[in-house]
């Protein structure tokens, strides 16, 4: 999803609620053992002979701080594997009990553009999962340390991200297009060879090479947000290789660009109302005494930021524009633990300062206080999404969507509609078009949805569960983005039992 429609930020899935230790039964040998390479003929046999050298590689693990790191070699172009390779960075946190180790759990936090290497270090899984599984993360191609995409200088990226997100004149619309073309041209010029090969299908194929290199007959996987798109794509390509899968905060592969934007507009609108209700319930809410008053205040504040931006105290970004205000607001909606911070930031704006909201915006975009960016999330997110979901070059389609989305999401609709423009001018094509997946013949896939998730609306989790041939749906009736590791014991215990004991949650479990 674009910076205005992305499915997740890198740290969104790192909850503050610790998972609870399972009962004694969870510490025993798993009830349903995973399939080992020796049990599954052809576990390292490549889909085509040309890929044999990739599937037969062994990872050369080396110490990196307290963990182990390695490079995984994959082809740039799966259609022409002899045309060159790239190295994907992989990190492993070894299982606490190597004697009773079950296998490897590969994790991805989403984005697209978030680092799986960083996520493996901090992912919040249950203590028994850490005990029995090596936690393995990799930076997908084009992301972080894996042949990362670089499109704009940091200062130029500031300008791109600060473009008026809700243009209301022809000149402002043309500015949106101009900025989108600048990003696209920069990506093409600096990454010409790799840019056509950054689709989610490519990443899923890389993940099967990783599975083979890890010595696993089947892949055990935790995908959050966009990571669910990777996981469901993998399951559809390699259903017999699916081990214990959890897809939390779903992005269905069949969503069109328009469906994605409209769904997230609804999701962020619903999440914003939930935040405002909590603010009102807490008492002395600085933005109003009712939900409707609070929502109207936020919309008015964003309009004022468009014409009269507030000072931030940041010499590199001295004024909070509508775009940066929206990023700051959106950041806090990913985790209800940040709602108090948002309330304080909004109260601060009433005294004429936007430093708190700018700090939230920096967190959303992974922008450092000195004006640099800590990673390439805000560039790689387009490089992946615009291959997976190209959009229209016709500006009238965005105008129409902005009006349509405003009916159901007056706060977020136009913002999300216009955020799709870069994919309408993207210079390369070639990803698989949006399509349904079934993963026929796979093991059970556990799908998790949160009822008031802003970035991946609950309806999307139900949508994917209905498409998959063998899946169960687990629901958290709550707020924020994703559920496992940041919701409650009911969710955490169910997922831990699935990983450690092989006991799938009951379909329809609601927590």
Automatic annotation (TrEMBL):
The keyword Mitochondrion does not apply. The keyword Ion transport does not apply. It comes from Intrasporangium oryzae NRRL B-24470. One of its GO terms (molecular function) is hydrolase activity. This is Proteinase. Residues 410-511 form the Peptidase S33 tripeptidyl aminopeptidase-like C-terminal domain. InterPro entries: AB_hydrolase_1 (IPR000073), AB_hydrolase_fold (IPR029058), Pept_S33_TAP-like_C (IPR013595), Serine_prot/Carboxylest_S33 (IPR051601). Coiled coil: none annotated. Residues 105-289 form the AB hydrolase-1 domain. Keywords: Hydrolase, Signal. PANTHER family: 2-SUCCINYL-6-HYDROXY-2,4-CYCLOHEXADIENE-1-CARBOXYLATE SYNTHASE (PTHR43248), TRIPEPTIDYL AMINOPEPTIDASE (PTHR43248:SF29). The lineage of its organism: Bacteria, Bacillati, Actinomycetota, Actinomycetes, Micrococcales. Belongs to the peptidase S33 family.
């Amino acid at each position: 999803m674009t910076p205005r429609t992305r499915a997740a930020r890198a740290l969104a899935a790192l909850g503050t609620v610790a998972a609870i230790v399972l009962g004694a039964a969870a510490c025993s040998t798993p009830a349903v053992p995973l399939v080992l390479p020796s049990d599954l003929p052809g576990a390292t046999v490549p889909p085509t002979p040309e890929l044999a050298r990739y599937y037969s590689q062994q990872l050369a693990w080396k110490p990196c701080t307290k963990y182990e790191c390695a490079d995984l070699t994959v082809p740039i172009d799966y259609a022409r594997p002899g045309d060159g390779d790239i190295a994907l960075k992989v990190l492993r946190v070894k299982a606490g009990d190597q004697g009773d180790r079950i296998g490897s759990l590969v994790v991805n936090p989403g984005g697209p553009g978030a680092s799986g290497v960083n996520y493996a270090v901090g992912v919040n899984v249950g203590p028994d999962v850490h005990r029995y599984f090596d936690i393995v993360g990799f930076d997908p191609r084009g992301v972080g340390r894996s042949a990362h995409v670089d499109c704009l200088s940091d200062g130029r990226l500031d300008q791109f991200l600060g473009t008026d997100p809700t243009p209301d004149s022809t000149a402002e619309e043309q500015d949106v297009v101009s900025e989108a073309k600048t990003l696209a041209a920069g990506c093409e010029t600096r990454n010409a060879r790799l840019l056509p090969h950054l689709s989610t299908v490519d990443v899923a194929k890389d993940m099967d090479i990783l599975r083979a290199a890890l010595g696993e007959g089947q892949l055990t996987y935790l995908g959050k947000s966009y990571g669910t798109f990777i996981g469901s794509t993998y399951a559809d390509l390699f259903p017999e290789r699916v081990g214990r899968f959890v897809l939390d905060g779903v992005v269905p592969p069949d969503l069109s660009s328009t469906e994605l934007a409209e769904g997230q507009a609804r999701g962020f609108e619903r999440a914003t109302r939930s935040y405002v209700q909590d603010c009102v319930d807490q008492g002395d809410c600085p933005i109003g005494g009712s939900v409707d008053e609070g929502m109207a205040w936020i919309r008015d504040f964003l309009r004022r930021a468009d014409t009269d931006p507030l000072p931030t105290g940041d010499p590199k970004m001295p004024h909070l524009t509508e775009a940066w205000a929206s990023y700051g607001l959106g950041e806090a909606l990913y985790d209800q633990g940040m709602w108090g911070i948002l309330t304080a930031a909004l109260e601060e704006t009433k005294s004429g300062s936007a430093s708190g909201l700018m700090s939230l915006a920096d967190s959303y975009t992974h922008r450092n206080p000195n004006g640099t960016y800590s990673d390439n999330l805000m560039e790689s997110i387009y490089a992946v999404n615009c291959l997976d979901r190209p959009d229209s070059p016709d500006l009238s389609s965005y105008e129409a969507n902005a009006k349509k989305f405003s009916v159901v999401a007056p706060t977020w609709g136009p913002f999300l509609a216009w955020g799709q423009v870069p994919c309408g001018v993207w210079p390369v094509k070639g990803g698989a078009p949006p399509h349904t997946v079934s993963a026929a013949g796979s093991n059970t896939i556990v799908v998790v949805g949160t009822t008031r998730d802003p970035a991946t609306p609950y309806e999307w989790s139900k949508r994917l569960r209905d498409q998959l041939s063998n899946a169960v749906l687990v629901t958290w009736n709550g707020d924020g983005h994703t559920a496992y590791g940041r919701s409650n014991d009911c969710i955490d215990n169910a997922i831990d039992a699935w990983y450690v004991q092989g006991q799938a949650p009951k379909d329809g479990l609601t927590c």
